[in-house]
Amino acid sequence: MGSTVSTETETTTDDFPPSGVATQVPLLQVRDLKVRFTQNGRTVRAVDGVNYSLQSGKTLAIIGESGSGKTVSSRAIMGLLPATASVSGSAKFEGVELLGMSDKELRTRRGPDFAMVFQDPARSLNPTMRIGTQITEAIRSHFEVSRAEAKKQAITLLQMVRLPSAETRFSEYPHQLSGGMRQRVMIAIALSCHPKLLIADEATTALDVTTQAQIMELLEDLQSELNMALILISHDMGLAASFTDEVVVMYAGRVVEQAPTRTLFSNVRMPYTKVLLDAIPRLENKSHTLLPVVQGRPPDLTALPPGCSFGPRCPYVQEDCRETEPPLEEHEPNHIWACFHPVIEGSSAK
Amino acid sequence: MAALAPDVVPRGAGIDLGGRGIPHAAAFDAGPTRFRRFFRSLELWLPVGILTFIVLVCFLWPVIHTIPAAINGNLLDANLPLFTHSSLYGNHILGTDTLGNDVMSEVLYGGRTSMEVGLGVAVIGFGIGGTLGVIAGYMGGVLEAIVMRILDMFLAFPALVIAITIVTYLGQSELHVIWAIAFFAIPAYARLARATTLRIKDQTFIVASRLSGASDKRILFRHIAPNVAPQLLTFSFLGIGVYIIVEATLSFLGYGLPSNIPSWGKMIANGQIFLSTTPQLVLVPSACLFILIISLNLTSDALRARWGAQ
Amino acid sequence: MTVTADQSTARGLQAGTPLLEAKHLVQEFVVRDRGGVKGGVVHAVSDVSFEVRAGETLGVVGETGSGKSTVARSVLAAPKPKSGEVLFKGTDLVKLKRRDLLELRREMQMVYQDPYGSLDPKWQVADIIEEPLVAYKRGNSSERKQRVGEVMDLVGLDPSVFSSRKPRQLSGGQCQRVAIARALTLSPELIVCDEAVSSLDVLIQAQVLNLFEHLRQELQLSYLFIAHDLALVKQVSDRVAVMYLGQFAEVGPSDKIYLQPFHPYTAALLGSIPSPDPNAAKVSTRGTISGEPPSPINPPSGCRFRTRCPRAQDICATEQPLLRELEPDHSVACHFPLAGESVTITMNGAPSD
């Protein structure tokens, strides 16, 4: 993509021979991923050091609000960032370094290895091309199959994503389908080459909640069928809690909390995560409940405050938070966070 | 409108990340580096400066500095070369033409005329065409259909023929030339105004205004017009250059300005045959026209860049 | 906060009496094919009746195509519904002439979904907020300015900082505050919120919701709150109406709707909402809902939900169920409601018959 990349060279046990065998070896391993944008002399640290490992068949949630860096980090891995981005760190897919890979090679990998589903199907689908063609195009760019065979596969895919009347829909244009159906087509396209990893970037945000539930169930079924790994990028904590194995919470480009899902939601430590959870309207709340709010707005990525980025808005902030940036450390088994004064169960906000 | 994402970020602020749907950074107060800001403002102020310079020179120079006449020159002085000093008539910096008119003076007065014509047409187009377009677009229905079809009829005629007819019928004068060209500018402005109005009138803030009690008149004047005007303005800048050249064509054909009013277009048209002997007759007004049109276009681009950011 | 003369007279309405009554609202849109040929008719709202009582918040929740936004617009007669009545304090808006309608509209205002789109990009904040006063010719210049300042304080925007800003210099949350301030200027009694927080970040959304609640208490406002997020609507409202494909499926108190939904669609909605509580049940649509939402151009005969309903029978196709009250203040439009059953949100599978 033309982005400048500097990669780390690691000669640790992280190197392993690329293979299709899914074992305890991570499918995707991201280390110290950083993305910087420079424009008009200003530098934006969109992503500032992200680490995670994902096994085949597992689901990872990346939670954050706008500007948190959740989308940028995934696009960096897939090589979809504009030329103004400078990416550093490491993202190894089955042991092969993706950052710095040539465009040509990334293109051969996008599809069979990993695929991405975006938020807005209205803009991600070509309005002038029939649905079926868009799928067969994806298939035929990676596999040597006849047009008839590709069509057969495409229809099977559409049936797999539970699109009603798949045969008829094959020849239709995107505008003839509803939002939910279009999103399913997007998923079908993403799945057309049987990727080992699917990245869903706010893929269900624009959908009705019932459609969302149907699609999430579909993805779960497909995961177990294909042993596919899934990265769910979202701002919706409920979604993360229900469908994922591990959660990474990002704020201002940095990871602020990371843990297996159950652990995180039962023992929230990072104040930002807690604040996020408290701010969600719950079905259980009585009517006219006042939500606990934090003041302020997402931080300016070009001028982050000294110390903890969440400090200015944190209800638990103290002096040391404003001076030094809290390091991201594993304070409890399997539970990482970056905070000097984490939330301990039972403590109340300042 | 398509459903918006739950995350809405401060618009117009922060880094543009190539339009790939990557979230923008939050607003930052300080702007780009000083150099960039200077360069960016240069983009606008340089062409504007040139325009101002041209306008000032053409309109003020003859006033503050006596120069020989542009018309009714003495035939005895015909075809004088550059930098000729005539004790009687003063400096002929650029020489004279075949009729003895001072070229420099012709350029200045001609500039006045050209710009007046260009501006005149633009003002008429903006005023009449813009108004018609906005009203037609806002009111819709039968009114819109009638207005637009009438304007379409204007455009259906061969332009030059109509212009020539108008000038012949009304007589040759600067004002009539302006009206003749405006005949075609008005429908163009009206179309643009109508299209922009259609785009705006269903936007939420118009609905909000109406529900806040604003009358149609109020909405048209205070909401629609200010949002349509920038488009028409940038269109005008581009248009002025075109109108000046159209006037030149008319003058060349003899159906433009009367013989006693110079214009750059006329000079170019009439001076062609003398290109080998007295090239300045063509080159100077051409250069001036070139600079004027480029400045207009650059200004238009710079304005569009600035306003487009909204 | 100063109470203007408008407010003290308007609040004369007894709490609980109907402020707004919609009766048998119908709204349809013609879909035009290319070339202007009349295509189908979108039955956006089909015979909807409800009331908003003084001092209460009625939430209307529905998914895409449910017609909830159309209901909001119809209530304000913008545009007027095809048929039906909208009684505001007893006066039918639909029948009013333009001048009288304008006068009545003063008491009902709306906040829209798009924070930026609902503000004129070329206007300054103070002018935007002042516009209703100018349009209705209230007060002189200094009185208006004072009112604008009051209202900006109410929504938490510092007049000295924000008055001269333009929308593009504001964040989404701030824009919504401006929109709310504008809605409050004329001291309306009813505010219609059409997906007013759906475009905002979670934390900002919470701020704005709290603002709505504060204003409700301080100014005794009534709200008609439209959204697609059931948890959101439920939290904000006293009563909730669940809408499906142009009709009300169920109307009742928020807590009842949640604890004891009567309509299968409500149960499906509840079951689809993922909860951040790790101990809560898994989201599941199995047994609660299936298939795709039908098109509002050709809605199913009889009960419109029947094509996706696990409990549908023959009668559902032939006879349209009307909204009937099963419990005090809790109505449902269904031939086979889930009444009297302990609703199984916690279990996977269909509610037991």
Strands of the biggest beta sheet of chain A: in what spatial order? 7-8-9-4-10-11-13-12
Q: Class of the domain at 110-308 in chain B, according to the CATH hierarchy? A: Mainly Alpha
CATH class of the domain at 25-101 and 230-280 and 292-350 in chain A: Alpha Beta
The amount of helix of chain A comes to: 25-40%
Element order of chain A: H for helix, E for strand: EEEEHEEHEHHHHHEHEHEEHHHEE
Question: What proportion of the residues of chain B form beta strands (DSSP E)?
Answer: under 5%
Shape of chain B: globular
CATH topology (level 3) name of the domain at 25-101 and 230-280 and 292-350 in chain A:
Rossmann fold
Low-confidence stretches of chain B are 1-31
Count of distinct strands of chain A: 13
Q: Any overview of this molecule?
A:
- The complex is a heterotrimer of chains A (350), B (310) and C (353).
- Chain A has twelve helices and 13 strands.
- With 350 residues, chain A is α/β, with parallel strands linked by helices.
- Chain A has a domain of 187 residues: P-loop containing nucleotide triphosphate hydrolases (Rossmann fold, 3-Layer(aba) Sandwich).
- In chain A, the strands form two sheets. Chain A has an eight-stranded mixed sheet with strand order 7-8-9-4-10-11-13-12, sandwiched between helices. In chain A, strands 1, 2, 3, 5 and 6 form a five-stranded mixed sheet that branches.
- Chain B has nine helices and two strands, in the order αββαααααααα.
- In chain B, a hairpin with a 3-residue loop joins β1 and β2.
- In chain B, α1 packs across α2, α2 packs across α8 and α5 packs antiparallel against α7.
- Chain C has an eight-stranded mixed sheet with strand order 6-7-8-3-9-10-12-11, with helices on both faces.
- The chains are: A alpha/beta (350), B mainly alpha (310), C alpha/beta (353).
- At the A-C interface, α7, α8, α9, α10 and α11 of A face α8, α9, α10 and α11 of C.
